[in-house]
Amino acid sequence: MEREDSILLPTRIVAAIIAPVLVLAVIMLYFLPGDTDRHWAWPISPELTAMYMGAGYASGAYFFTRVFFSRSWSSVWLGFLPITTFTIFMFLATVLHWSRFDHSHVSFWIWTLLYVTTPVIVPALWFMNRRTDPGRKEGELRIPLPARGVLAIAGAALMALALLMMISPSAVMDDWLWPLSELTARVVAAFIILTGGLLVGMALDSRWSASRIPVETFVLGTALMLIAIVRDWGSLDPSEAVRWGYFISVLAGLILLAGFYGWMESQARKTQPVAAESEPAG
């Protein structure tokens, strides 16, 4: 018996709650990065760190909006376990740097509520909803094996970097592309392990239908980060070679992501008739 591939009501409700919260975070961090001392849970410096976080939250807002409106669990499920690791990292950063936060600010209490509850809620939703996933179907478009290998290697490397930054932020702070504190290094690590987990998940699942939305979030986040680099160019490493190298690498990443997305979508259009013919009649 084929599973229904539906998103359960509790999952939609949580997505409907989280998405607007993340939109508010995007406004405060990405569009008003110089005012975090007044409206965020703690003052963030330089502005590039705030915009990096804002770009990540924009991707998250997009993802949870898609979860709310999507018809199929299989199209969004890949995000839930990486988001779980992200929330655990954020919870740990909060506990380890409790004194750095402005405990009198409403943003702090929203932050704390979010990262105390979501490490439990998000995996619980994944566990409840996973029974609706029909799994791989005959004739369904898969990500090519060489691309999956690249995704797996890149994802594993990012996850290893994130773990190092969480365990020993001082090990990377001096060599980072812009100034970080121990708190912001651990927060950045949370976004990195989320990215790495998604890449590994895409490699393991292989279904393009499951990877489409994650790639869209990558394109959005990378584009916003590219703009952030231009907006706060002065916060990058003083070496012009390093600055331009980082800018070009992010731009190249955006082009590769967009190209990969366009190519896979073109393949999906070609394989749709094949997939339809392979489904049993009735």
Report on this model:
This protein is mostly helical and 282 residues long. It has one domain (9-134, 141-263). 73% of the residues lie in helices and 0% in strands. It is built from ten helices and no strands. The protein has helices spanning 9-31, 36-39, 47-69, 80-96, 106-129, 145-167, 170-173, 182-205, 208-231, 240-278. The two termini are 13 Å apart.
* Spans of at least 5 consecutive residues with low confidence: 274-282
Shape: globular
Structural class based on helices, strands and sheet pairing: mainly alpha
Strand content: under 5%
Q: How would you sum up the major sheet?
A: none
Order of helices and strands: HHHHHHHHHH
Number of strands: 0
Distance between the termini: 13 Å
Overall helicity: over 70%
- The helix count comes to 10
Number of domains: 1
Task: Please give the radius of gyration in angstroms.
Answer: 19 Å
Q: What is the mean predicted local confidence, pLDDT?
A: 94
Question: Nutshell version of this structure?
Answer:
With 282 residues, the protein is mainly α.
Topology:
Blueprint: H1 9-31, H2 36-39, H3 47-69, H4 80-96, H5 106-129, H6 145-167, H7 170-173, H8 182-205, H9 208-231, H10 240-278
Helix pairs in contact: 1-3, 3-8, 3-9, 4-5, 4-8, 6-8, 8-9, 9-10
Keywords for this structure?
disordered C terminus; 73% helix; mainly alpha; globular
